[in-house]
Specification:
Elements: E1 5-7, E2 14-16, E3 24-29, H1 40-58, E4 62-67, H2 74-83, H3 87-103, H4 120-132, E5 136-139, E6 142-145, E7 182-187, E8 203-205, H5 207-219, E9 223-229, H6 233-248, E10 253-259, E11 262-264, E12 267-268, H7 279-286, H8 288-295, E13 304-305, H9 308-326, H10 338-352, H11 357-373, H12 379-386, H13 404-418, H14 422-434, E14 437-440, E15 447-450
Parallel strand pairs: 3-4, 3-9, 9-10, 11-13
Antiparallel strand pairs: 1-2, 5-6, 6-7, 7-8, 11-12, 14-15
Helix pairs in contact: 2-3, 4-5, 4-6, 5-6, 7-8, 8-9, 10-11, 11-12, 13-14
This protein binds one RNA strand of 89 nucleotides through helix 1, strand 9, helix 6, strand 12 and strand 13.
Length: 451
RNA sequence: GGGGCGGUGGCGGAGUGGUUACGCAGCGGACUGCAAAACCGUUAGGGCGAACAGCCCGUACGCCGGUUCGAGUCCGGCCCGUCCCUCCA
């Protein structure tokens, strides 16, 4: 099996993918908190990890991908209150929109999409274990993780707790033993319309514990890859590392894989900054393939600039692939050309080397460029074979059916051209363009292409 | 202030010691009745020269040093950007 390497945030190194059980990979990626509709930045990990799953399956791994949904949180309470609906209802609606938006990417669904509110027994059990082992304590209905009890705290984000700002939040008498401690369980407060029973009284889970519990419940401890946006490294993932390892004595995950932020004008796209572009809006405007192609146009770990120009370029790249696919096949017969085989290998090697999608794109375009110049046995089949790994397989099955009226116009234009009445021919071509067709003449006659 | 990541051609974006990444855009060409698609060339210049001949030097890697036969790549220093430092994909 091809060796796969991934950059691991914890060690900072390229790490070989070495599953617990040969051939089986568990991946957990942190999904959105559903208090509003997701934006383009939220879609990046979704696309990256959905495509990583495809690639690993292609290599023969059995893969289980989990992308969670955080459906109980302060922001959800706030948004629901502002909208005048129950928080559970608001969350349910946002989940519906999240699924609708991500479905439009055409990449399918993860294998599991657990929700915090459906994982309460596991969360409570995990917190109980931490208390039993002295890593957590109850205080006024809350439960906190005792950061000082886990000496390795800070290893993921490369911070020393001693250096961390310990200033107490102004004006709030804390229930914590130590300012570094973080909440595992939050006692129910006035105005919150949902709550769950626990040994520490009614309340709800803290943000970090839900991911530890869901990941462990679905993938087991010491699973292969834990991912998410780089803005989650601290505190979210740091806390997951601490609480899971403290409770179970083994690391939560083997590889920590983080994607870079989408930026707008050199600043992170973020709901709090307000510079967001919703995924649905991008899909409406550019279509799914250009959006997917855009999101993997740079290496997943690097920041990616969001701009109309970037989306336009992605669209142009998709068009180049599409034009290749709809050109008359020139593959010729016989065995796959050596050049084709070499580009396919380069493509797969690129993905195996820290999931380098831009490098994979380069291999694909080298193949297309060469095939545009000379008949290349197997080129088309190879492109068809590789496109799904980039999430662009829809380009293969595009319906090129032309409506009868357009066919009639095309024939009429041909008659006009035969009569050398070019004025009339061009008028008809304009009409076809208005109907959404582009005319492409060739030695084999004209064809209509949908725009 | 601390920690992480980065600064590559007109733009986006790969590349961790040794010849063109790749894509986009612009310009020119060829094709075409004209286009579109695909294709070819080009996007730094300067010097010698009568020359639209030929030759020579130079020609993307933030800046300055260093190591090396050879540096975008390694080392040191500096500048700049960005993410995180308990809302965040």
């Amino acid at each position: 099996m091809r060796e796969v390497r991934i950059r691991d945030t914890l060690s900072g190194e390229l790490v070989k993918l070495e599953p617990r059980e040969p051939g089986k990979v568990g991946i957990y990626a942190c999904g959105p908190t559903v208090y509003s509709r997701i934006h383009v930045g939220n879609a990046r990990p979704y696309v990256v990890f959905m495509l990583l799953r495809r690639f690993l399956r292609r290599l023969g791994y059995e893969v289980k991908l989990v992308i969670n949904v955080t459906d109980v949180n302060d922001k959800i309470y706030d948004a629901a209150r502002a909208a005048g609906v129950p928080s559970a209802e608001h969350a349910a609606e946002m989940i519906r929109l999240y699924e609708e938006d991500t479905n439009r990417l055409g990449l399918g669904r993860p294998d599991a999409e657990p929700r915090a509110t459906e994982t309460m027994p596991e969360i409570i059990e995990l917190i109980g274990e931490l208390i039993a082992k002295g890593h957590a304590y109850e205080s006024g209905g809350d439960v906190y993780f005792r950061v000082r009890s886990f000496p390795e705290y800070g290893k993921l984000s490369n911070r020393d707790p001693a250096d961390m700002d310990q200033g107490e939040e102004a004006g709030s008498a804390s229930l914590k033993e130590d300012p570094l401690d973080f909440a595992l369980w939050k006692a129910h407060k006035e105005g919150e319309d949902t709550k769950w029973d626990s040994p520490w009284g009614p309340g709800r889970p803290g943000w970090h514990i839900e991911c530890s519990a869901m990941a462990e419940a679905l993938l087991g401890a010491d699973f292969e890859i834990h991912g998410g946006g780089s803005d989650l490294v601290f505190p979210h993932h740091e806390n997951e590392v601490a609480q899971s390892e403290a409770a179970r004595g083994v690391p939560l995950a083997r590889i920590w894989m983080h994607n870079g932020m989408i930026r707008v004008a050199d600043e992170k796209m973020s709901k709090s900054v307000g510079n967001i572009f919703q995924l649905a809006e991008a899909l409406d405007r550019y279509g799914p393939q250009p959006v997917v192609a855009y999101l993997i146009s740079g290496h997943y770990r690097q920041p990616l600039e969001f701009s109309e120009r970037a989306l336009d370029e992605a669209k142009a790249r998709v068009e180049r692939i599409r034009n290749f696919l709809r050109a008359p096949a020139q593959d010729g017969a016989g065995e796959e050309d050596e050049f084709v085989a070499a580009r396919r290998e380069a493509f797969l090697d690129a993905l195996a080397d820290d999931f380098n999608t831009p490098k994979a794109f380069a291999a694909l375009f080298e193949l297309i460029g060469e095939a545009n110049k000379r008949p290349l046995a197997g080129a088309r089949a190879a492109v068809a074979d590789l496109l799904p790994l980039l999430g662009l397989e829809a380009l293969l099955e595009e319906d090129e059916e032309v409506d009868p009226e357009a066919e009639r116009l095309l024939a009429e234009r041909e008659r006009a051209r035969a009569e050398r009445d070019f004025e009339r021919a061009d008028r008809i071509r304009d009409e076809l363009i208005a109907r959404g067709y582009e005319v492409r003449d060739s030695a084999d006659g004209p064809r209509l292409v949908r725009r």
